[in-house]
Every structure is written in structure tokens, then in C-alpha cells.
From TrEMBL:
GO terms for molecular function: oxidoreductase activity. PANTHER family: F9L1.8 PROTEIN (PTHR47215:SF1), PTHR47215. Residues 53-161 form the FAD-binding FR-type domain. This is FAD-binding FR-type domain-containing protein. SUPFAM superfamilies: Ferredoxin reductase-like, C-terminal NADP-linked domain, Riboflavin synthase domain-like. Transmembrane segments: none annotated. InterPro entries: FAD-bd_FR_type, FNR_nucleotide-bd, OxRdtase_FAD/NAD-bd, Riboflavin_synthase-like_b-brl.
Length: 295
């Protein structure tokens, strides 16, 4: 028995026909219902695509070096005139695209460094931007306060902190960051995740040297909130007496995981670092669902 095919031509950018297969026993009314459901689905997909491609213009309020070697910059954008953008930042670890003025063509993907509460209270997004030669990020770092940039919608689900909450579920939380990966980690720490109610919260923060390590002025406040800061330098000068090498090596040397089932982890940074650390954590018995990343 042959199966009739109903072809719909939705109003989508590619104009691709969609085929709805129905049995020969289908009634005209059932065909109509299926057709309507499919059209509603196509409409919702089209609307989502439009929202994702929406850009918001906003002025810069701050551009200044975040590291003494000039490789990292603090960038702040005034989004107070865009309440939808403000309210869409709900969790640390979320990110967006930021597009400098023409002739810059490609937007930069940036994690939001400030906690959601700052957007709600002051209407500001803050970022930590690594200036890479020839990139849109380099163009961005060369702008001035008052210059207008374009922001995409906020993307990503951020760090799923609920997996390590309440504190009794993860008495130990190990945090790992390298380079500009400290940006969403700052948002996490300053959003608050009850660090002072846990028995052991450590931040292993890797950089080439102290000249490339951002947020040093925030370390005291972070430690006051219950986070132990462990800087790890891969190319330190002769005066450095702290941890040397790579983050994953420093952690492997220390470990000190007393109860793996009550341990959580948060990671952001170089791919090799995250892969190596996750392998060590899982091998030691840390549950995979308590290992958080922001993508």
C-alpha cells in the first residue's frame, strides 16, 4: 500500500520542503491538525532564530588594563537601557558575543565576569578581555569609554551550582581556572555559593607569571568569603616562592580529597587543563555530576 506524502513549504531562510508522512487511513481533519502543529513548530523555531540574531547597542563605561603586561583588560558596558538584557543574566558562567564598531567583522565570545546582581543593581556587564593580536578582542581593548558596541543575547546555562548545593552536598569545592578563564569564576565567587559554610574551598588559578594574573586586588575579599587562593605560575621569576608549573600538576601534588562523594569541582580555562583535572577527579571518585563547567 502506498503512503501519501504531504509537502509543506515553510517560510524559512532555506525554503526547504518538509514532508509529512501519513497513513492512507488519515482523515482530512487529522491531516489539518498535524499541518497546524508543524507550522506552529516552524514559527517557534523561526522566532528563536530571530531572538538569537538580535543585537543591542550599548556604550562602554570602562576600558583599562587588568594585568601589568597589558595582555588583559577590564571592560564594562552600560546596559541599563536594555532591561531584557539585564534580566537575561541569571547565573554566573553565562556568556555573550560582543561586536566592536566597524570595520571589525567577527564578534568576540566573552564570559560575563560580573555577578548577575551587578547587572540588576547598576545595569552593567563587566568582562575580562584577552587582547589577541589581529582579533576583535584587540580592537575592543583599543576603544575608549563612551564608544558604542553591540551585544548579542546572553547565552548558555552557566554553572549549575544547584548540583553542589546545599553545602552539605559538597563540603569540598575545588575550583580551577587558567588565564582569562578566571572571568566567569569571578562571577561565581562574587555571586556567592556558601563557600564559608563549606569545610574546604580552593581556587587553583594558573597564569604565566604575576604580571599576567588578573584580579589580584580581589583576592583578599575572595578569601574573606571562604575561598582559599592558590596561584600557580608556569614561568615565574626567581622571587616566586609559591606553586610552579601547571594547575593540573599542582593539584595532583596536593589533592587532599577527604571524601570524594562530598566533593564538587568547577573548571574554566585551557582544554588540556580541564581534561587532565577531570580525569584525576573522576579517578579519585568525585561524582561526574558534581563537576561543573559553563558550556
Amino acid at each position: 500500500m502506498s503512503v501519501p506524502t504531504l509537502t509543506l513549504r515553510p517560510s524559512n531562510p532555506n525554503h526547504l520542503p518538509l514532508h509529512l508522512h501519513v497513513s492512507s487511513s488519515s482523515t482530512p481533519m487529522s491531516l489539518l491538525r498535524r499541518s497546524l502543529r508543524l507550522r506552529r513548530r516552524l514559527s517557534s523555531i523561526s522566532a528563536a532564530a530571530v531572538r538569537q540574531d538580535t543585537w543591542t547597542q550599548a556604550p562602554l563605561t570602562l576600558i583599562k588594563p587588568a594585568s601589568s603586561d597589558g595582555s588583559l583588560f577590564h571592560v564594562a558596558v552600560d546596559i541599563s537601557a536594555s532591561p531584557d538584557l539585564v534580566s537575561s543574566h541569571t547565573r554566573p558562567g553565562q556568556y555573550l558575543q560582543l561586536r566592536p564598531p566597524p570595520p571589525a567583522e567577527k564578534p568576540a565570545f566573552l564570559a560575563i565576569a560580573s555577578p548577575p546582581s551587578l547587572a540588576a543593581s547598576d545595569g552593567v556587564f563587566e568582562f575580562l578581555v584577552k587582547s589577541v593580536p589581529g582579533s576583535s578582542a584587540e580592537v575592543l581593548c583599543g576603544l575608549r569609554s563612551g564608544d558604542v558596541v553591540e551585544l548579542s543575547a546572553v547565552m548558555g546555562s552557566g554553572f549549575q551550582v544547584g548540583r553542589i548545593s546545599p553545602p552539605e552536598e559538597a563540603r569540598t569545592v575545588l575550583i580551577f581556572a587558567t588565564g582569562s578563564g578566571i572571568s566567569p569564576i569571578r562571577a561565581l565567587i562574587e555571586s556567592g555559593f556558601n563557600a564559608n559554610e563549606r569545610s574546604d574551598v580552593r581556587l587553583y588559578y594558573g597564569a604565566r607569571n604575576l604580571q599576567r594574573m588578573a584580579y589580584q586586588e580581589r583576592f583578599k575579599a575572595w578569601e574573606s568569603s571562604g575561598v582559599q587562593i592558590l596561584p600557580v605560575l608556569s614561568q615565574p621569576d626567581e622571587m616566586w616562592k609559591g606553586e610552579q608549573g601547571y594547575v593540573q600538576s599542582a593539584f595532583s601534588r596536593a589533592k587532599q580529597i577527604i571524601n570524594p562523594s562530598s566533593t564538587g569541582a568547577v573548571l574554566c580555562g585551557h582544554k588540556q587543563m580541564t581534561e587532565d583535572v577531570i580525569s584525576v577527579l573522576v579517578a579519585d571518585g568525585v561524582p561526574k555530576d558534581k563537576i561543573l563547567m559553563n558550556f
